[in-house]
Amino acid sequence: MESVQTFAKLIEIMNRIRKECPWDNEQTHDSLRQYFIEETYEAIEALDQKDWGHLKKELGDVLWQIIFHSIIAEENRIFNLNDVICELNDKMINRHPHVFGDTSVNSAADVEQNWETIKKRDEGKKSYLDGVPKSLPALLRAQNLQRKAAAVGFDWPEIEPVWEKLREEETEFKSALLGGDKNEIEAELGDILFTWVNITRHLKINAEDALRSANRKFENRFKALEKKIKTENEEISNLNIEKLDHYWKKVKLEEG
Question: Does 78 reside within a domain?
Answer without folding.
Answer: yes
